Amino acid sequence: MAETTKFSGTLRGFPNSPAMERGEQSSPAPHAKLRLPTGMRDHAPAAASARRRIVDGLLTVFERHGFARVITPAFEYEEVLALGLGDAARAATFRFVEPSSGEVVALRPDIPPQIARLIATRYRDEPGPVRLNPSPIG
């Protein structure tokens, strides 16, 4: 059985955390800069709507040409995900320990390895080509 360690710190801003139960309010640290990581951006309502229309249009075209929509998880076991990644992508992968199993999981840096895993496990008996359209969540 995997050994678990109980977190004894305070998780400010999380529901049911000790800090929230004591009625403390969540606020950024005084020295924190409110910013996004490189390459990330927020999309305000008008931009989000325009982006959604473009994605919906592309998904319609893909489906019209026989590509079935699938959604893969945001993270998987690191050892499985790493099978389809090159050295650079493997080095850039964000890893963490999955609490219930104690195993190392990784955020997907790229979707093709997940599609390969999906085909190898769920579509292995299907006659090719298997046409899948990896869709964003939602």
Largest sheet: 3 strands, antiparallel
Distance from first to last alpha carbon: 36 Å
β-strand amount: 5-15%
Rg (C-alpha, Å): 20 Å
Low-pLDDT residue spans: 1-14
Structural notes for this entry:
The protein is 33% helix and 12% strand. The chain has 138 residues and is α+β, with helices and mostly antiparallel strands. The longest helix has 20 residues, at 45-64. The protein starts with 17 loop residues before the first helix and ends with a strand.
Q: Which features does this protein show?
A:
138 residues, alpha+beta, three-stranded antiparallel β-sheet, two-stranded parallel ribbon
Write a compact overview of the structure shown.
By secondary structure, the chain is α+β, with helices and mostly antiparallel strands. The chain has helices spanning 18-21, 45-64, 78-81, 87-92, 112-122; strands at residues 68-70, 75-77, 95-97, 104-107, 132-134. The strands form 2 sheets. A 3-stranded antiparallel beta sheet has the order 2-4-3. A two-stranded parallel ribbon has the order 1-5.
Topology readout:
Blueprint: H1 18-21, H2 45-64, E1 68-70, E2 75-77, H3 78-81, H4 87-92, E3 95-97, E4 104-107, H5 112-122, E5 132-134
Parallel strand pairs: 1-5
Antiparallel strand pairs: 2-4, 3-4
